[in-house]
Design a protein that fits this description.
The structure is a single chain. The N and C termini lie far apart (46 Å). By secondary structure, the chain is α/β, with parallel strands linked by helices. It has helices spanning 14-22, 47-59, 72-83, 88-91, 102-117, 131-139, 159-168, 191-203, 227-234, 266-283, 290-300, 302-333, 341-344, 356-366, 386-396, and strands at residues 29-30, 95-100, 123-127, 144-148, 150-151, 156-157, 174-178, 207-212, 239-244, 257-262, 349-351, 368-369, 375-377. Helix 2 (47-59) runs antiparallel to helix 12 (302-333), helix 5 (102-117) runs parallel beside helix 6 (131-139) and helix 11 (290-300) packs across helix 12. The chain folds into two domains: 14-45 and 314-396, Aspartate Aminotransferase, domain 1, CATH 3.90.1150; 65-300, 3-Layer(aba) Sandwich (Aspartate Aminotransferase, domain 2). It binds (2S)-2-hydroxybutanedioic acid.
Length: 399
């Protein structure tokens, strides 16, 4: 009865990892998925995660179901990490938080909520955006459109285009904003630009939906990277925010994150929470506990939290080092081209501007696995491989 089902296309990001695993080329390099690697290109389990797990084993926890909204200590901790110690919304119980399945699951609960309680609302996504955003909203039955974000000519933010598109969006539209370290471009608004975006959102009655998947990876500081959602909260703008601990705590496979609705009164927050719980119940019932305990332990313990900040700085610092090395190698190989975008971009990625043909060449000739949009994950690059990658990039301009 399923014979009419068509083959789904390979996932633009996770499909790259599948192809990488199948390659037998000894020089192969996986710069597809945004997953942090050590200088030896090995996965990294953070020291704070190991310490938290040790404490958890000693505490001998049971494996009972969590409530639909997840672990209370985690929910409290994740709100605090996002909105800061001094947050009025947190103090006044105006944040509905549901622990969910990392960034994707949190966005999906938010999308289902929009579909159910904001009928007809269209979600505006930056162009370009993370490959999964479109699937998530479309599968939840929420229409999406794009707003201008990236300016190819300047390899920077097209602020005027973005503001014009926000102003043209009907009131009540949802605007997806990457909280920091925009994926895939590595181009973030400055503080002044965030203020202009908040003005446009406010004056047009739009509803921001922050996706915060890289807190810590833009500046190296967890605090600083929460600038945008904290600004919106201070200005009294109501918004959704999805959080992920896949990258900054390296908890990829634990599927730990949260969906928050920051609103202007306590009663609305409580009702919103009850409806988000209902949505979660129907999709996966209640979330897994292991990653939630790890994140809560790390955020709530001052010594572990301080150590996490150090490790965060180390991870972000390693990426900055390979960025600089890649840039130096590219300049050495082709001094006539302006490569400064490599060091101007921030976060885990570099958006190289390579076209699909060049990407194909990078993979087929050099075994460098990257996404078709020309994004490379610098979190998967080592210093030893910078020259190899630079050679391949320069070579790809000959095709
Ligand atoms: C990425 O963009 O590489 C990550 O967010 C991983 C994913 O799930 O796509």
């Amino acid at each position: 009865f399923l014979s009419g089902v068509e083959q789904a296309p390979a996932d633009p990001i996770l499909g790259v990892s599948v192809a990488f695993r199948e390659s037998t080329n000894p020089n192969k390099l996986n710069l597809g998925v945004g997953a942090y690697r050590t200088e030896d290109l090995k996965p990294y389990v953070l020291d704070v995660v190991r310490q938290a797990e040790k404490r958890m084993i000693e505490a001998d926890y049971d494996k009972e179901y969590l409530p639909m909204q997840g672990l209370a200590e985690f929910n409290e901790a994740t709100r605090k990490l996002l909105l800061g110690e001094g947050s009025a919304a947190v103090a006044e119980s105006r944040v509905a938080t549901v622990q969910s399945l990392s960034g994707t699951g949190s966005l999906r609960v938010g999308a289902a909520f929009i579909g159910k309680f904001m009928p007809g609302a269209v979600v505006y996504l930056p162009n370009p955006t993370w490959g999964n955003h479109k699937n998530i909203f479309a599968d939840a039955g929420v229409e999406w459109r794009e707003y201008r974000y990236y300016d190819k000519a300047t390899i920077g933010l097209d602020l005027d285009g973005m503001i014009a598109d926000l102003k043209a969006a009907p009131a009540g539209s949802v605007i997806c904003l990457h909280g920091c370290a925009h994926n895939p471009t590595g181009v973030d608004p400055t503080k002044e630009q965030w203020a202009a975006i908040a003005d446009a959102v406010e004056s047009n009655g739009l509803v921001p939906f922050f996706d915060v998947a890289y807190q810590g990876f833009a500046s190296g500081s967890l605090e600083e990277d929460a600038y945008a959602p904290r600004l919106f909260e201070r200005r009294g703008i109501e918004f959704f925010c999805a959080q992920s601990y896949s990258k900054n705590l390296g908890l990829y496979a634990e599927r730990i994150g949260a969906i928050n609705a920051v609103v202007n009164d306590k009663e609305t927050a409580a009702k919103t929470l009850s409806q988000m719980n209902r949505i979660a119940r129907a999709i996966y019932s209640n979330p897994p506990v292991h990653g939630a305990r790890i994140a809560a332990t790390v955020i709530n313990d001052p010594a572990l939290f301080a150590r996490w900040n150090e490790e965060m700085g180390e991870m972000a610092g390693r990426i900055k080092t390979v960025r600089a090395m890649l840039y130096d190698n590219l300049c050495k190989l082709n001094p006539d081209k302006d490569w400064s975008f490599v060091t101007r971009q921030i976060g885990m990625f570099s958006f190289t501007g390579l076209n699909p043909n060049q990407v194909k060449h990078m993979t087929e000739k050099h075994a460098i696995y990257m996404t078709g949009d020309g994004r490379i994950s610098l979190a998967g690059l080592s210093q030893a491989k910078c020259e190899y990658l630079a050679n391949a990039i320069v070579d790809s301009f000959t095709v």
